[in-house]
Amino acid sequence: MLTLSILGFLAERPMHAYELRQRLSDLIGHNRPVSDGALYPALTRLRQAGHVERQAEPGSGAPARQMLHITDSGRAELLRQLAEPRTTEITDGGSFFTLLAFLSHLPDTEQQRAVLRRRLDFLTEPASFFSHSGVPARIKDVDDRYRKGMLIMARAARQAERSWLEQTLRELSDDDAAARAPEA
Predict the structure, then answer these.
(1) What single DSSP character describes residue 182?
(2) Which uninterrupted H or E stretch holds 109?
(3) Residue 86 lies in a domain
(4) Distance separating alpha carbons of residues 127 and 93, to the nearest angstrom
(5) What pairs with residue 136 in β-bridges?
(6) Sign of the CA dihedral running 74, 76, 79, 85
(7) Number of CB atoms found within 10 A of residue 144's CB
(8) Is the model's pTM score more than 0.90?
(9) Distance (Å, rounded) from C-alpha 174 to C-alpha 179?
(10) Residue 38's CATH number
(11) What is the pLDDT of residues 58-107, one digit of tens each?
(12) Residues 6 or more apart from 98 whose CB is under 8 A from it?
């Protein structure tokens, strides 16, 4: 998700590595801090792949700053990752939210809908933190108050996300229908 986030932020505008690290930390740092030890090797791999380039830009009375820019191949890679997310990027909540942060970069609303439908399909499957022989635990069968709390909160979050996904899918379909409608 670090690669996707780097490409996503650089698609919005060029920035220097320190600013990029701040933006990454704002997005995904609550789960795992973004260290220089993770960022700089990722930037090196992206530069070697031709997805990102570094350009010196003069500073006002200071040394030149190294600005990072996304390349055409980087933009193509970003769009590929958004249109074809791995299963774990759909099933893992943190990874999906990172994907969601950049989904608007994908210009094809049908591809956007396909990603959202995959997440909705995943959320529609029965699931629970606790199960017995593959059968999800029911809240009423859990005696431990803290485990019960986990189930209650997870169920509420899952339902809220499903509602949002269903609404957004309807809105995207309505937007497409309006765009295809002949002008009067």
Answers:
(1) P
(2) helix 109-124
(3) no
(4) 13
(5) 131
(6) negative
(7) 9
(8) no
(9) 9
(10) 1.10.10.10
(11) 767 777 788 999 999 999 999 999 999 999 999 998 899 999 999 999 99
(12) 1, 4, 5, 27, 28, 89
117-123 mean pLDDT: 95
- Residue 110 CA to residue 57 CA, distance in Å, equals 39
> Which pLDDT tens digit goes with each residue over 131-150?
666 677 777 877 889 988 98
| 46 within some domain | yes
Which structural domain range is residue 39 located in?
2-79
Range of weakest confidence among 63-67, 108-112, 164-168: 63-67
> Residue 25 has which token pair?
């930390």
Element (DSSP H or E) covering residue 45: helix 36-48
Give the separation between CA 143 and CA 112, rounded to whole angstroms.
41
Q: Any idea which of 75-79, 122-126, 159-163 has the lowest mean pLDDT?
A: 122-126
